[in-house]
Amino acid sequence: MFDNKFDVVVIGSGPGGYVAAIRAAQLGLKVACLEKDTTLGGTCLNVGCIPSKALLQVSEEYAHASKVLKRHGVMIDGLSFDLDTMMGHKNKVVSDLTKGIDHLFKNNDVIRIEGTGSLGKPGEVTVRDAGGLETVLSTNAIIIATGSVPASLPGIEIDEKRVLSSTGALSLNNVPNHLAVIGAGYIGLEMASVWGRLGAKITVIEFLDRIIPGMDGELAAGFHKMLRRQKMKFRLSTKVTNAEVTDSGVTLTMEPADGGEPETLDADNVLVAVGRRPYTNDLGLEVAGVAQDNAGRIKVDDGLQTNVPGVYAIGDVIRGPMLAHKAEDEGIAVAEIITGQKGCVNYDAIPGVIYTHPELAYVGQTEEQLQNAGIAYSSGSFPFVANGRARAMSETDGFVKILADTESDRILGVHIMGADAGHLIGEAVLAIELGASAKELARTCHAHPTLSEAIKEAALDVDERAIHV
Fold this sequence. Notes:
The protein has helices spanning 15-26, 42-47, 49-67, 83-107, 166-169, 186-197, 217-229, 285-288, 324-338, 367-373, 388-393, 421-433, 438-443, 453-462, and strands at residues 5-11, 31-35, 111-114, 116-119, 124-128, 134-144, 148-150, 163-164, 178-182, 201-205, 233-235, 238-245, 250-256, 263-267, 269-272, 276-278, 311-313, 352-354, 359-364, 377-383, 399-405, 411-418. By secondary structure, the chain is an alpha/beta fold. The strands form 5 sheets. Strands 1, 2, 3, 4, 5, 6 and 17 form a 7-stranded mixed beta sheet that branches. The chain has a 5-stranded parallel beta sheet with strand order 8-15-9-10-11. The termini are far apart.
């Protein structure tokens, strides 16, 4: 039981929602967090970031054991994998972390309410539980943090059996002989990596003429070559117009993106990974008068407030990259704004990571963005093949690239392809957050031998004075 009056009601318990709820409670507010599902954590913890990384980790360990260890003198006879055990590991990780949020809520006196929330009169949120019972909550502030759901394509129906979203791709009972992936973005390439490592033939179909749209072009081109070396096949500049489920699998109908004769492709399973869309179903936005843009995203001002006073929105339902850590930062910022503090998010310092092998990570602007904006910049790069630790690890694929303003030397973008890129990017994020120059990064002492020395060398190369290349 709970009192129906709160200082803040958060709708959604994903990374943005649960972090906003906890931060608001830390600041002395009475907080309720609504969640329609039986577990907390939203897409990220239940069917997104966390389970996908668990499968990426174990499949990479299997691939490493089968292809690399023998070069290091470690011999394994009869190497095999157990898919059920892999899935069990994934499920336990998810279960432990979602229960962990329950524990955090209790420690911070956040009231968890199970049900769907919708807006109505100013200062009110209606909660409907699984049985249809409705309860009206009174609140001073509402934070919408309902996240996103997978997008699809016309003519393609996702059944999570043969035609999969990312959710279905995380729970296959067996390794498909042939997995077709529609979309060469983060999700598609990560899931393709998991099942490709375990033995599936992979065909990636992308409407554009390149993979990972929006990422630095040089990085994307190099990554494309590496994935092809991993036996992934690509059909670029190709659109899928239909998916017919058969007794043995799925038949896709495709044609050139700019028009041409159609052809078919047969696969055991098809993963539709063409992006995500904001989840705003049944929120009562129209009733409350909350404005949305043409993409269905909720419009907010610099303080993350909608056009309706007291109603805020964060994460995937607003503009910007659909990333868990971006939502978390916004959750903290909005809680602080509600309590009169100056919460803020530096959108120029939000990293992105693709957890394939090699990993890709970036922060800041790409060369293409700088060129389009007419910003003069200098570029420095350093290959991992020239890094001692990378050679010792047999992880010599990839490079670090740093882009700096020609006049001020301030770092504008950092792009990494290579082992542990997701960890390495943290240094670059801090550099951009603090407004560091390439020279300052180059002067910073890096432990030897480490992969991070490649960042130092790339910073030196901005001024054409790299040492080890």
